[in-house]
């Protein structure tokens, strides 16, 4: 089932998306819905279909959830690790290390405050000259780290700031509108194999395609359960936490984001996440 949120009479509420229409779920946002499904031990899709209005409406997807926390995983694809080491002038360096070792790279990406909904602006830091889109599969967690569903993410990052010094990673990763999510959350029961998803990304500038790239989640070098297990060690993450699983698409310097660029990330099973870049 495709779930998410819509803006309805000034409030953001959960909705079921079917055939291009939305069936709002009154008095619940996505976080409420996931919490209720966990508390009542009712599958999320069953609960959503029981509570959703019988009258579909033409409402666009808003942010699929307002996550209390967003965490990012890094160097989970070989392309990401080798590119980052090469930027530091080393063939095998700290990025290859975390790609290879048991403990994954996991960093705090922010809260709902820094999230951008489908169609909203994604941010370019005013002090960055090379901000890149990072197209990623994202996981939305229920209670006790259980996967509630999947969505798409853009882990927008200031690569020049990360490149200058590894200790600048939080500044390259966390700032206004640094994390786009959407368009919807596909429930876990409807996506039994998250390792077989074809993902594409395009960047369009002034109406012309500037960049086009693709990957497959079959190249993800970690199990999602392993990422969640490490994230949850001595760290009681709240229900509704979103985990970005890392990028396998590396944008070249020529496609560094500029104001007005339109970034589209697509996975047919989930949908299309479209955002326009702006300086923040
Ligand atoms: O250490 C850098 C961050 C890596 C990352 O965000 C990714 O691989 O997606
Ligand atoms: Mg990333």
Describe this structure in words.
This protein has seven helices and 17 strands. The relative contact order is 0.20. The longest helix has 11 residues. It starts with a strand and ends with a strand. The mean pLDDT is 97. The chain is globular. Strand 16 and strand 17 form a beta hairpin. Strands 1, 2, 3, 4, 5, 6, 9, 10, 12 and 15 form a ten-stranded mixed sheet that branches. By secondary structure, it is α+β, with helices and mostly antiparallel strands. Helix content is 20%, strand content 37%. 2,5-dioxopentanoic acid binds next to strand 4, helix 3 and strand 15.
Describe the protein's topology.
Layout: E1 2-8, E2 11-18, E3 21-25, H1 30-40, H2 44-51, E4 70-74, H3 78-87, H4 94-100, E5 105-110, E6 115-116, E7 121-124, E8 131-132, E9 135-141, E10 147-155, E11 157-158, H5 159-164, H6 169-173, E12 179-187, E13 198-205, E14 208-216, H7 224-232, E15 242-247, E16 262-267, E17 271-279
Parallel strand pairs: 4-15, 6-12, 7-17
Antiparallel strand pairs: 1-2, 1-12, 2-3, 4-5, 8-11, 9-10, 9-15, 10-12, 13-14, 13-16, 16-17
The structure holds 2,5-dioxopentanoic acid (DO4) and magnesium ion.
């Amino acid at each position: 089932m495709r779930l998410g949120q819509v803006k309805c009479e000034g409030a953001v509420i959960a909705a079921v998306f079917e055939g291009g229409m939305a069936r709002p779920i009154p008095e619940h946002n996505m976080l409420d819905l996931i919490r209720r499904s966990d508390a009542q031990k009712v599958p999320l899709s069953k609960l959503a279909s029981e509570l959703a209005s019988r009258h579909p409406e033409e409402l666009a997807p808003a942010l699929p959830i307002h996550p209390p926390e967003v965490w990012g995983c890094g160097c989970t694809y070989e392309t990401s690790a080798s590119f980052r080491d090469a930027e530091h002038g080393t063939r095998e360096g700290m990025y290859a290390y975390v790609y290879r070792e048991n403990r994954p790279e996991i960093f705090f990406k922010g809260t709902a405050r820094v999230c951008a909904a489908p169609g909203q602006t994604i941010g370019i830091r005013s002090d960055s000259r090379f901000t890149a889109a990072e197209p990623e599969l994202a996981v939305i967690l229920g209670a006790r780290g259980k996967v509630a569903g999947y969505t798409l993410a853009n882990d927008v990052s200031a690569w020049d700031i990360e490149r200058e010094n590894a200790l600048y990673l939080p500044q390259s990763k966390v700032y206004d509108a640094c994390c786009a999510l959407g368009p919807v959350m596909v429930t876990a029961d409807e996506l039994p194999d998250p390792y077989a998803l074809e993902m594409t990304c395009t960047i369009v500038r002034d109406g012309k395609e500037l960049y086009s790239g693709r990957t497959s989640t079959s190249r993800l070098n970690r199990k999602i359960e392993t990422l969640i297990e490490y994230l949850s060690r001595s760290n009681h993450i709240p229900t509704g936490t979103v985990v970005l699983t890392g990028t396998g698409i590396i944008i070249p310097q020529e496609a560094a984001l500029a104001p007005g660029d339109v970034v589209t990330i697509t996975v047919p099973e989930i949908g299309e996440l479209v955002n326009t870049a702006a300086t923040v």
